[in-house]
Write a structure and sequence with these properties.
It contains twelve helices and 52 strands. The strands form eleven sheets. The chain has a 22-stranded antiparallel barrel. A five-stranded mixed beta sheet has the order 10-15-16-13-14. Strands 3-2-5-6 form a four-stranded antiparallel beta sheet, with no helix packed on it. Strand 27 (about 585-595) and strand 28 (about 605-615) form a beta hairpin. The longest helix is centred in the first third of the chain and has 18 residues, at about 260-275.
Length: about 1000
């Protein structure tokens, strides 16, 4: 009886509901609509005819949701049949995109803008926003120099547009241009964008073509990155807490010889050298050096496979890395005042010894409607970062140069039980761990005050004042035990301080008016002024009483000191007009006049116009009823942009005050003036298609562009009779052509969802005119007319002579094109183009799977068709030419006549195959499993009992797998000290003991209440 009563009660509380879901636009059935019982995980999806059936409890409320349509909630009210009509989500179809000095609906865009939402990059275990968006924006190539924390990152938007001026884009945060150039005092660049907490970012929009970027005029040839931070919304105050923690290790390592292999190879090399040169006993010299390196241990045991010492010095360079991060934020407000307040703490330990990065960040964004016409606002960010840095890649103190130490050399000297810097082959970088520091501390203030006043309906005026204040202090101390490297017996200390004030004011009118029902006009006109002032002071001292006294006040001798001051300013006027007829025909005109203190008196101002058109074909009568084609727009644009990123006084005649002689002060001319120096100018044409199929379940963009840069800013040779060697002039041309493809798909909808985002880009770069100049950079890079920037130009390695083990090179006689004649005389071979560091194409693919609160995101990123030059190869892939430990591939060396191999005979001090050549060139292509995130959001029925709005737990893997043929530590590489040189744009694709990227796994929890 009890069971029957319970069963009857349950049946009375549940019912089966059925019905049909159709589109409001054309009344066609909608398959795949998600139908769920509100507040539960109970749900289903509509079939191919738009029909559904679902058993629910009691008088429930159903929720109908579908991509591209507005979600709808329907109360049953005792009904068993519920038919629903879903309206297209106009907001989703007309997503708002941030453009220069305003916003625009995406459907009305006639320019090309790559978008990355803040949600896509939340909580990634990296230090800067560029690393977070790597591979996610079509046409944007992002590459870290190495795996050191907080270090420089290269971004190329549609290729390199300059040979010697900067190729980095302009960064604008909440409307204010910021300082993004490294302020580092050593050869390795730092990254000022690492001061910013990217978890506070709402969206990132990258302006790529001239139509989108020309409103930034002379600074837009390399693209413009617009970063918008999160704002509060009226309603209940919402709090969010996110905590994550994880561990890191290297993505890759090299294989080096163990003690037995090392002794065997070098003993053979010395014997081979004796046979070639009996006048010197190479074997005896080798043994004396081995006695020193072995520090009193018996290195000869290695010949019997029982080495007394067998050190893996590569492992000494690495440590177990990790990250801990806490983010707190609150947002809310009412109709008049809205706020977003956030705080963050991040502590990251690098995979290289002595490397760490700590950031504390706070932000407050306020928006207040003071009157019906006046709005006031504030965006303010404060941060402090502390970076325990490493030496640049070209220093013996950088950790990875430890790999050069012989494996028979003990880490700890058994005679003293301590580290030693005396018996080692090179300076022992481990001595820096406890006896040196290089700490860079940055205090950063990004602030923006603004006011907006509605003058008339559709017309408003906005004024902004923004500051970027950067205070950076680099503190160095090298103790007594580092004397072998720094050259000072009792300690060396240095302090470098940079203060940078960058302020901007923008003042502009915005007009938006619809005339009748067919015409819409938007216009922006205004002015901008920016000034940046930088002060630097440096002092160095040596001879300290002990390593306990590290401040310069304790130095017995101040050996160096200097101060610098520099500044630049821009005064600009800009305008843009958008016209749309019947949401069908679109036209955009824009222009900017820029005046810069950096250029010559005769060319102070430049004009940068752009025009673009769009045609929305799906608004035409012959397509607007198509059930298959949801959206189709054709775009075309042309415009001019500039590049002003050179030194602040490049156009001026300069004198230096260091012309003292015999204690008498003096001046000397240091730079000749060029009053006609002006901007590099890039003319860009873009043709694009925006498309959407099956109610935008498939959507994307296709673009083709041509960028022609003229008036390159180059230091050219001048006659010596002028008293100078070079002068900066506008000479040369460069071209980029490319193709971009992006597609987003909703593969599955319903309880189980699957969405895919794919992008790939092809760019071809070519220098078309350098006025006959050849510019060298890197190890073997060059800028040459008719070739891509930075091509590798060197002798072509031809392998090994099977008869005698000599390294061979192709002669490549220009008088005999096509000849493959070889020589063992390195100097008899001619240099040719042997490779290209620029990738043929780049791409990324992201798949997101979801099922009832469970979500899996898998993101792959790839770079294809580029080469990498291993600048360290002549030392550790050098056929035992010197005593550096070698990679294991040297074991396949030539040993006897008839051997077929690519590794020459091992010869101590004979340089057999060690000259710069294509021997050290490798394919740099790779595919990387960049990010994998598995998350679970607890059901609302569960968390509501805890008085919470959201609970999500997740695990993220970063750089989990790398697929590449490159045999080095990591294929994402560009030796840092080369990027800071005057030929940094040319010095591409070089590896020189550069740290690999970290592989990081984190776990986290996010709470909302």
């Amino acid at each position: 009886m009890v069971l029957l009563l319970l069963t009857g009660n349950l049946l009375a509380q549940s019912r089966t509901v059925s019905g049909k879901v159709v589109s409001a636009q054309d009344q066609t059935p909608l398959p795949g609509v998600n139908v769920s019982e509100k507040g539960t995980t109970n749900g289903t999806v509509t079939d191919v005819n738009g029909r559904y059936s679902l058993t629910v409890s009691g008088d429930a409320t159903l929720v109908f949701s579908f991509i591209g349509f507005t979600a709808q909630e329907v109360a049953l009210n005792n009904r068993s049949v519920v038919d629903v009509t879903l309206a297209e989500d106009v907001q989703a179809l007309n997503e708002v995109v941030v453009v220069g000095y305003g916003t625009q609906e995406k459907a009305d865009l006639t320019g090309n803008i790559a978008q990355v939402s803040g949600e896509e990059i939340q909580n990634l275990p990296v230090t800067s926003v560029e690393q977070a968006i790597q591979g996610r924006a079509t046409g944007v190539f992002i590459e870290s120099n190495n795996g050191k924390l907080g270090q420089g990152i290269s971004i190329r938007v549609r290729g390199s547009s300059s040979v010697t001026a900067s190729n980095q884009p302009l960064y604008v945060i909440d409307g204010i241009p910021i300082t993004a150039q490294s302020q580092s005092g050593n050869g390795a660049p730092t990254n000022p964008l690492a001061d910013i907490n990217f978890n506070d970012i709402e969206s990132i929009n990258i302006l790529k073509d001239a139509s989108a970027a020309a409103i930034y005029g002379s600074r837009a040839s390399n693209g413009v990155v617009l970063i918008t931070t999160k704002q509060g919304k009226s309603g209940k105050t919402k709090f969010s807490v996110n905590l994550l923690s994880g561990v890191s290790n290297p993505t890759g390592k090299r294989e080096y010889l163990n003690a037995q292999q090392y002794v065997e190879l070098f003993t053979e090399a010395a014997a081979n050298s004796n046979a070639l040169d009996p006048s010197f006993d190479y074997v005896a010299y080798l043994e004396s050096r081995f006695d020193r390196y072995a520090a009193g241990t018996d290195w000869r045991q290695a010949l019997n496979s029982t080495p007394a010492v067998d050190e893996n010095w590569q492992e000494q360079a690495f440590q177990k890395g990790g990250i801990t991060q806490l983010d707190l934020n609150a947002s809310g407000g009412n109709e008049k005042t809205r706020f977003y307040v956030a705080g963050s703490y991040s502590d990251q330990k690098g995979i290289m010894i002595r490397n760490s990065f700590e950031r504390i960040n706070g932000r407050i964004n306020l928006d207040h409607q003071a009157t019906e016409r006046l709005n006031l606002g504030l965006n303010l960010s404060l941060s402090r970062t502390v970076n325990d840095r490493l030496s640049d890649d070209n220093s013996f103190a950088t950790p990875l140069q430890l790999v050069a130490q012989p494996p028979i050399q003990p880490v700890i000297d058994p005679r003293t039980n301590a580290l030693s810097g005396n018996y080692t082959l090179y300076f022992n970088g481990l001595l820096y761990v406890d006896n040196a520091k290089y700490t860079t501390t940055v205090f950063r203030n990004l602030g923006n005050l603004y006011a907006s006043y509605n003058i008339l309906p559709g017309l408003k005026f906005r004024t902004e004042f923004g500051v970027d204040i950067l205070n950076q202090n680099e503190e160095e101390y090298y103790g007594k035990l580092t004397a072998r490297n720094v050259g000072t017996s009792n300690g060396l200390g240095a302090n470098r301080y940079v203060q940078l004030l960058n302020y901007t004011t923008n003042n502009f009118f915005q007009y938006n008016q619809t005339i009748g029902t067919q015409h819409n006009i938007e216009a922006t006109v205004g002015m901008s002024f920016q000034e940046s002032r930088r002060d630097m002071s440096y002092v160095e001292g040596q001879q300290f009483p002990s390593d306990a006294f590290k401040q310069l006040a304790s130095a017995a001798e101040i050996t160096s000191g200097t101060t610098e001051e520099t500044a630049f300013s821009f005064l600009s006027y800009f305008a843009r007009a958008n016209y749309a007829y019947a949401n069908r025909y679109l036209l955009t005109l824009s222009g900017r006049i820029d005046g810069s203190s950096r250029f010559g008196a005769n060319e102070r101002y430049g004009f940068f116009p752009a025009a673009s058109m769009g045609w929305v074909l799906t608004e035409e009568s012959f397509l607007n009823t198509s059930a298959f084609l949801s959206f189709l727009k054709l775009r075309a644009s042309y415009g001019l942009t500039g590049n002003a990123e050179i030194s602040n006084f490049a156009a001026r005649g300069l004198f230096s005050g260091d012309g003292a002689y015999g204690g008498v002060p003096g001046l000397r001319p240091s730079q000749s003036p060029n009053p006609n120096l002006k901007w590099e100018t890039t003319a860009q044409t873009d043709i694009g298609i925006d498309y959407g199929f099956l109610r935008n379940r498939i959507s994307g963009e296709i673009d083709y562009y041509v960028k022609q840069t003229r008036d390159l800013l180059l230091n050219v040779n001048v006659p010596g009779s002028s008293g100078f060697t070079t002068q900066m002039r506008n000479i040369g041309k460069l071209q980029n052509k490319g193709f971009e493809f992006m597609v987003n798909t909703s593969n599955l909808v319903g309880d189980f969802t699957w969405n895919t985002s794919l992008n790939f880009s092809i760019n071809r770069n070519k220098i078309t005119d350098l006025d006959g100049q050849v510019i060298e950079g890197g190890f073997v890079n060059r800028a040459i007319e008719g070739y891509p920037i930075g091509v590798f130009y060197e002798r072509e390695y031809a392998g090994v002579d099977p008869e005698n083990g000599d390294a061979l090179y192709y002669i490549n006689d220009p008088e005999q094109p096509g000849s493959r004649e070889t020589t063992n005389d390195y100097n008899a071979a001619n240099r040719i183009v042997i490779g290209n560091p620029n990738p043929d194409w780049i791409g990324g693919i992201n798949n997101t799977f979801g099922y009832k609160g469970l979500e899996l995101t898998v993101f792959f990123q790839g770079v294809f068709g580029n080469e990498i030059y291993n600048g360290g190869g002549k030392f550790f892939q050098a056929s035992a030419d010197f005593f550096d430990n070698q990679t294991t591939d040297q074991l396949r060396r030539w040993q006897q006549p008839g051997d077929i191999t690519d590794v020459p005979q091992a010869r101590l001090f004979f340089g057999n195959g060690t000259g710069e050549s294509s021997r050290f060139l490798s394919d740099g292509s790779y595919v990387r499993l960049k990010t994998v995130t598995l998350g679970y959001t607890l059901p609302s029925a569960v968390i509501s009992k805890l008085k919470l709005d959201r609970v999500r737990i997740y695990v993220t893997g970063q750089n989990l797998l790398t697929f590449t043929k490159y045999e080095g530590w990591d294929p994402e590489v560009n030796a840092d000290y080369l990027t800071t040189s005057s030929t940094g744009n040319i010095s591409l694709g070089n590896d020189f003991y550069s740290a690999p990227q970290p592989r990081t796994i984190t776990a986290g929890i996010n709470l909302g209440f």
